[in-house]
Specification:
mainly beta, 3 helices
Length: 206
């Protein structure tokens, strides 16, 4: 798994704020462009699915991937049973307002981990993946809302060549916009940390 499509810059109006994230798998996301219109979601091209957990930025995430030429479907959790996945090439799990431990909080659909494609989890999406894969998520004593500086680490392919600054030790730094009260405190087996912030030691994992 990998850490962020991009830890977005807060000063850029077209970019969405995000919390923590990761991706599952190593295949590159592929491209084509088309809009889905029916209730039963048929995927006839190599497609990226954005699964909406209630984030106010889900539409923006889908728009940005379409602007990159990627055929993207934005679907709600009530639509996942209708999803046909033969040509699925990647999944983005959006953030959301819930806590993974809250009663009746949205659950990660089984097909996400069974599809064998890259998965990017943003905020709630990362936390849902961590829980599903036997990691741990806890309420943070210091919640992060607003501008935060994140240090890239672990030489992740996802964050390679992406930095806004460096610290005195030469580590790459990313200017990001955080909005989260929970944090991953233990990574699932087989993962490594690829990003950290002052209040979130595991801000990204892969």
């Amino acid at each position: 798994m990998r850490g962020n499509v991009r830890l977005e810059r807060p000063h850029h109006p077209s970019l969405a704020p995000c919390d923590v994230a990761l991706v599952f798998g190593e295949q590159p996301l592929t491209t084509v462009r088309q809009q889905a219109e029916s209730t039963t979601i048929g995927i006839n091209h190599k497609t990226l699915v954005v699964l909406d957990f209630g984030s106010q930025y889900s539409q923006l995430i889908a728009r940005r991937t379409r602007e990159l030429g990627v055929h993207t479907l934005l679907i709600g959790l009530d639509q996942v049973d209708a999803l046909e996945t033969p040509n699925l090439r990647g999944v983005i799990l959006s953030g959301g307002p819930d806590s993974v431990y809250a009663k009746d909080s949205p659950q990660l659909p089984k097909w996400v981990l069974e599809a064998g494609v890259p998965v990017l989890g943003i905020c709630y999406g990362m936390q849902a993946l961590a829980i599903q894969l036997d990691g741990q998520v806890e309420t943070s004593r210091e919640r992060e809302f607003g501008y935060v500086r994140v240090r890239a680490q672990g030489h992740s392919k996802l964050l390679s060549g992406i930095q806004d600054d460096t610290n005195d030790q030469g580590h790459g730094l990313l200017d990001v916009w955080m909005s989260h009260g929970d944090r991953v405190t233990q990574m699932p087996p087989g993962f490594k940390c690829i990003a950290s912030s002052e209040s979130a030691p595991i801000a990204g994992m892969a």
